[in-house]
Amino acid sequence: MAETKPDKPGFLSRLFGRKAEAPVVPEPAPETPRAGGHPDTMPSPPANAADDLTAAPPTVTTASPDTTEEDKTPPELAGADLQPVEGLDPEGTNPQEPLPRIVTEAGLELRPDIAAADLPAPEPAPAEILPSPAPEIKPSPARGWWQRLTEGMRRTSSSLSDSVTGLFTKRKLDDATLEELEDALVQADLGVPTAMRITEAIASGRYNKEISPQEVKTILAGEVEKTLQPVAQALTIDRTKKPFVILMVGVNGAGKTTTIGKLSQKFRQQGLTVMLAAGDTFRAAAIEQLKIWGERVGAPVLARGQGADAAGLAYDALQEAKANGTDVLLIDTAGRLQNKVGLMAELEKIVRVVKKFDPSAPHATLLVLDATVGQNAMSQVELFQKAAGVTGLVMTKLDGTARGGILVALAEKFRLPVHFIGVGEGVEDLEPFTARDFAKAIAGLEATS
Ligand SMILES: Nc1nc2c(ncn2[C@@H]2O[C@H](COP(=O)(O)OP(=O)(O)OP(=O)(O)O)[C@@H](O)[C@H]2O)c(=O)[nH]1
């Protein structure tokens, strides 16, 4: 992806009073890069997903009770919202042959045929609940979290650290140095407002004096921590909600399925019962992946064949989880490119259907963001917030990028809680987000104090 350097006034121009706007860089949504041996591309959707339904074992749940015969998705529409919107360009704008326009509450445009299909259609393929055999959990690696965090974030911290050391070794703090520092911070995806604040904090009282790289890193960490502190919030499971429903959303390959597995393990370790709903019905491999996680952590998985209706599946999972007294239900969803209007509409439909069952659900809607996409994460938050009402963020793959600073820019702009961060594929590589640790890791400082 092309690096986009947000427009910002330099330190000198600010001295003359020009103010910068926080940058929003809506880049065209990329196919999210995958890490760790995951397929590089999404498989093409089947021409008619109904044709690809796999035979499944006997039904153990009932279909959504309020789904009438008329509400069933006609076979010719099954999987239709996995196709580009006819007559629209890939961004869903600038129609060449305008279709009647239907706009959702969230301001997203729907195909007229999808808008008509409001409720989940009961699936021809019956749901399958897998038993949960004894968990097979990999032994915890010997390294502690701090070590995994700093090792994982090495690319981000060393690029920042190199800039700081290069700039401040035996050099006075002048305009040129400050300007270069600000550029380096913006380049590290920290965002213009934060970059400006850090630069000003460093300049304050030290202008024209020497300052050591270590001092700069300490101020940098302090400012980053200040920005992150309000968003570093634990994910609290309200035990009065049974099940506590967590909807996982995000673009394809962001790490949703893997994160569900890691979270499930944490919940199981806290003594909670967990159920998983394989709502990523777009990719057969995602369903299989979730089943494997379910087996590992001892959580039953409700799954159907590829192409099945995700909203119907979510409804059935809720019913099942309620009947079983399950504590936490985690619903996986297909990776939706945020500019594919049909896919976002499907996500809105899942939320509507879940609310039909329990108006207070989903109790948490977690957007999983892949740190390697950098500034594109900004537009992902905006769009998923509109479609699904995101309540919190999980940032994955901080280990695979030098762009970990994006978390700071997101905190500054959206102020959404950040619950967890991921620094690797292992089950222990996801941990609750803490502002101080992250700030120190990004600045390349030691853990103490
Ligand atoms: N390096 C690294 N890889 C990760 C991390 N989290 C997830 N991954 C990997 O990213 C890849 C994609 O993860 P998935 O969980 O399949 O992503 P998804 O969002 O469910 O993807 P779709 O099913 O296409 O929607 C997998 O290879 C994961 O192992 C992380 O924190 N670090």
TrEMBL record:
Biased composition (Low complexity): 47-66
Superkingdom of source: Bacteria
EC nos: 3.6.5.4
Membrane topology label: Peripheral membrane protein
Disordered as annotated region, ranges: 1-99
Keyword NAD: no
GO molecular function, one term: GTP binding
InterPro entries named in the record: AAA+_ATPase, P-loop_NTPase, Signal_recog_particl_SRP54_hlx, SR_rcpt_FtsY, SRP/SRP_N, SRP54_GTPase_dom, SRP54_N_sf
SMART domains: AAA, SRP54, SRP54_N
Single Gene Ontology BP annotation: SRP-dependent cotranslational protein targeting to membrane
Sequence similarity: Belongs to the GTP-binding SRP family. FtsY subfamily.
HAMAP family reported for this sequence: FtsY
Name of protein: Signal recognition particle receptor FtsY
Phylogenetic placement of the source organism: Bacteria, Pseudomonadati, Pseudomonadota, Alphaproteobacteria, Hyphomicrobiales
